[in-house]
Amino acid sequence: MTVGNPASDPAFEPLRQFRPLLLKAHKILMDAEKDRYEASHGPIANKGDYLRLVLSDEQFSWLRPISQLIVQIDEVLMAKQPQPLERAPELLNQARHLLYDTEIGQAFQARTQVVAQRDPEMAAMAQRMDELMHHGDPL
């Protein structure tokens, strides 16, 4: 097993570039889901109530596996110890499966399309993530 430094090894570059795109998309989608929730249920009183909703309400459940994936990517990229080089493509494959081949992926794609129609930044990020996930093109 070959290992490398996630902060500098070229094998981790696609993962280093993918992470901020996924993180920003996740944030935009969290905000959009919050807006949808508030449109149906009224304003969320405070950040504590919002956090409880994110962690336990069914409306936010599709975002939780994406949050967990971001944590896994962070654990690898921020590790102080060298990491197996194959971990980068494994995580990108996991992302591809989650975002395109599952029910969560269907929700992610649908909501991303809706937000991208009014947010050019989201449209560009979605296109870059899609290129990476489907074509293996470098970012």
Give the rounded overall mean pLDDT: 92
- Main sheet properties: 2 strands, antiparallel
Q: What is the CA-atom radius of gyration, in angstroms?
A: 16 Å
Low-confidence stretches: none
Tell me the fraction of residues in β-strands, as a range.
under 5%
Walk across the major sheet and give the strand order. 1-2
Note the run of SSEs as H and E. Answer: EHHHEHHH
**Number of E-type strands:** 2
Q: Give the total of domains.
A: 1
Number of helices: 6
Morphology: globular
Query: Which structural category do the helix and sheet elements fall into?
Result: mainly alpha
Query: Level of helix content?
Result: 55-70%
Spatial gap, N to C terminus: 26 Å
Break the fold down into its secondary structure elements and pairings:
Layout lengths: L2 E2 L8 H29 L5 H10 L7 H14 L5 E2 L2 H14 L2 H14 L3 H16 L4
Antiparallel strand pairs: 1-2
Helix pairs in contact: 1-3, 1-4, 1-5, 1-6, 3-4, 4-5, 5-6
Overview of the structural elements:
The two termini are 26 Å apart. Helix 1 (13-41) runs antiparallel to helix 3 (64-77). The longest helix is centred in the first third of the chain and has 29 residues, at 13-41. Strands 1-2 form a two-stranded antiparallel ribbon. It has helices at 13-41, 47-56, 64-77, 87-100, 103-116, 120-135, and strands at 3-4, 83-84. 70% of the residues lie in helices and 3% in strands. The chain has one domain (10-135). With 139 residues, the chain is an all-alpha fold.
